[in-house]
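Ticket #444: bound-state structure for NDP.
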Amino acid sequence: MKYVEKVLETLKAQNPNEPEFHQAATEILSSLQVVIEKHPEYEKAGLLERFVEPERVVMFRVPWVDDQGNVQVNKGYRVQFNSAIGPYKGGLRFHPSVNLSIIKFLGLEQILKNSLTGLPIGGGKGGSNFDPKGKSDREIMAFCQSFMTELQRHIGQDTDVPAGDIGVGGREIGFLFGQYKRIRDEHVGVLTGRGLTYGGSLVRTEATGYGLVYITAEAMKQRNDSFEGKTVVISGSGNVAIYACQKAQSLGAKVVAMYDSNGYVYDPEGIKLDVVRDIKEVKRGRIKEYAERVPGAVYTEGCKGIWSLPCDVALPCATQNEIDEASAELLVKNGVKYVAEGANMPSTLKAIEVFQNAGVVFLPAKAANAGGVATSALEMAQSSQRLFWTFEEVDKKLNDIMVNIYHNIDKAAKKYGMEGNYVAGANIAGFEKVAEAMMAHGIV
Ligand code: NDP
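RESOLUTION: The complex was predicted; output attached.
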C-alpha cells in the first residue's frame, strides 16, 4: 500500500466519527502523492503522520448566564495544528454545528492556506457550538468573556493568534480582546480582526471577499478575460459574501443572487448591496426582507436552488459542503466558467470532480480565501511595529499576495504535470514549505 493511503487509513481508524476531517485530509493527501514520490525521506521521518496529527488540542467548558438567569454550558475548542513556519493562526467559529471534526478540518486546511500566503504563520482553528443568533449583546459578552477566561492561557502574540470566522465578527473580537487584556494586563496583537481604535488593520474586514475577487480576476486575466459584464452568484450574506459582492460589482460584474441559511434572493437587476448590508450588518435580520424592499427581486425558501441560476462565476461564501455533485452539474450545465471558494470546503469532493472534468476554472478555498488570514498577518506586522498602514498600502499588499498565490499554485500544478488543477497546485505549493520546515526541525 502506498504511504499516502496508509496514512489516510490510519487517520480514519484513529479518528472515527470525524467525516469533515477525513474529507479534508483525503483531498489534501491525495494530491501530495507526487511530492512524496520525489521525497522518500519524508516517509522515513514519519512526516505525513505528524502532519495530520495536531500538535495540541484544547477542549474546555464555557459556562455563562443568559438573560433569563439560566446557566448555559457550551463546548470550547482550540486546535493548535502546526507551528512549523510560524505561530498558530486561524479563526474562531461560533455556530451550533461546531464539533471537533469541523475544527480539525479547518485547522488542517489552515496550515496550507497560511503557508500559501508566503507569510510566517502556522495553522490553528477554534470555536464553540454557541449560537450567537438571537442573543442579546449582554449574552454575547458574557459568553465571550467566559470563553476567553479559559482560552487566554493557551494563546499569545508569538504563540497562537486567533481571529474571526462564522459567527465571530467585530463585536465578538472586541469582547474577547477586552477580556484577554483584563486578565493578562497586556495590550498586544493576540487577536486579529480588531477594531481600528485598538490595533486593528484597515482592509481586514474586506480582505477575504476582496482577496477572493483579486485571485479570480488574475485567473481571468491569464485567459484574456475579466469580471466586466459577468453574471455572478454568491452564496452567503456574511462578511466574505458582502465584500466579494462589493469588489466584483466594482469590477463591472452583475451579482444576481445571495443567500442566508433560510433561503436566497434573486435580483435580475443586480443585488443592491446597501440593502443587504442594512439588513445583515445593521439590523441583523434575514435576507428574505430584501425581496420585500426591492421591487422585482424574488425570495425562495431553502438554499440549494441558488445553484440552478445561470451564471458565469459562482462564489460560494457561506459554509462547508454547500455545493454537492448535483448542484455542480447544474452549474456546469448552465455554463459556469469560474468557481472560486470564499468559504472553507464549500464543494464536496464529487462536486470538485465535476468542475474539473468540465474544464471549469476551479480555485480552492485554501488559495482563494487566503486574503483574510494574509491581512491578519499584516495586522500582526503592524502591531509588532506599533504602526498603521493606509488603506491603499494594505489593499495593494493584499492584491500582490493574491496574485502571487495564483501564480504559485499555477506553477506547482504545471511542475507536476497537472496544468490547471489548482486543487493539486495549492496543496503542493502550501505543503512544500511546511514539509521543509518540519524536516529541518527534526522529529518533533
Ligand atoms: P459570517 O458569519 O459573516 O457569514 C456566514 C454566512 O453564511 C451567513 O450569511 C450565514 O447565514 C451563512 N451560513 C452559515 N451557515 C450556513 C449553512 N449551514 N447553510 C446556509 N448558509 C449558512 O461568516 P464569514 O462570512 O466570516 O464566513 C463564511 C465562510 O468563509 C466560512 O466558511 C468561513 O470559514 C470562511 N472564511 C472566512 C474568513 C473571514 O475572514 N471571515 C476567512 C477565510 C474563510 P445566516 O446569517 O443565516 O447564519
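RESOLUTION NOTES: Residues 207-368 form a domain with the Rossmann fold fold (CATH 3.40.50.720).
TICKET STATUS: resolved
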